[in-house]
Amino acid sequence: MHRRRAGQRYRFVYRVFSVLVDIDRLDEAAGDQRLFAHNRFNLVSVHDVDHGPKDGSPLRPWIDARLAEAGIHVKGGTVQLLAYPRVLGFVFNPLSLWFCHHRDGTLRAVLCEVRNTFGDWHGYLLHDTGRPMRSPVRGRATKCFHVSPFLPLTGGYRFSITRPSEHYRIAIAYLDGEHDPVPALVAVQWGERAPVTDATLVGCTLAMPLMTLKVVAAIHWQALRIWLRGGRFHSRPDPPSTEITR
């Protein structure tokens, strides 16, 4: 659900499905399924090149290095990635979440990996200087990355992220500094967990055909509606000089 509460107001809701994967066990997970693959074409797949360093190299060394730069050491703990998969080879992820656990099982950090439709990306790393984090994870970040051309590069975000279990919920409120304390935009995603099986994958892709392509189409359709209502256009600035804001 997206709800714009300032300027050209609107609200829309649509169905999606994501995959929650252990980045160290992707090959193992893919080996158990006929319709799910890692780094190769299938009905549903996850490709390393879509995440982290974006060059196809392994994800684990990259996320460990980013955590270490923030003084966080998970000592081999599980890192789960929650993201849209490729469906028939295509994906666009406005938001991917990395849940980084210490080897004792406690959650130590969440990386919010944000993309825009211009091909740029930026990460907001939520953590408590390496200490265990309670669920829901709550945090704030100054906006430094251009996402919507109808919102300025000012203000900041409030995050509320539930650690995935049988259910999860992600809520991001954007405050533009002009309408505080009322958020100018609220984005929420919530869902229920189901095991990855061939039947589940077929059911999801039939219920939400071409889901990842429709995400891109929905972004541009909503942008057109805002523009037709007189939305103010903001030119695309240069992306941040650093990949991740801590």
Provide structural commentary.
- The structure is a single chain.
- This protein is an alpha+beta fold and 246 residues long.
- It has one domain (2-231).
- The protein has four helices and 15 strands.
- It has helices at 26-31, 59-69, 198-207, 211-228, and strands spanning 2-4, 10-12, 19-22, 36-38, 44-46, 79-83, 86-87, 95-101, 107-115, 121-127, 137-142, 156-161, 167-175, 185-192, 244-245.
- The chain has a six-stranded antiparallel β-sheet with strand order 2-1-14-13-12-11, with no helix packed on it. Strands 3-6-8-9-10-15 form a six-stranded mixed β-sheet, covered by helices on one side. Strands 4-5-7 form a three-stranded mixed β-sheet.
- A hairpin with a 5-residue loop joins strand 8 (95-101) and strand 9.
- The longest helix is centred in the last third of the chain and has 18 residues, at 211-228.
Main sheet: strands, sense, barrel: 6 strands, antiparallel
Strand order of the largest sheet: 2-1-14-13-12-11
- The pLDDT mean sits at 90
Distance between the termini: 26 Å
Question: Based on CA inertia axes, which overall geometry fits?
Answer: globular
Q: Uncertain segments of ≥5 residues (pLDDT<50)?
A: none
The number of distinct helices, counting runs of at least 4 residues, comes to 4
Q: Beta-strand percentage? A: 25-35%
- Please report the total strand number as a whole number: 15
State the helicity in percent bands: 10-25%
* Succession of helices and strands: EEEHEEHEEEEEEEEEHHE
Q: Nearest-angstrom radius of gyration?
A: 18 Å
Structural class: alpha+beta
Total domains: 1
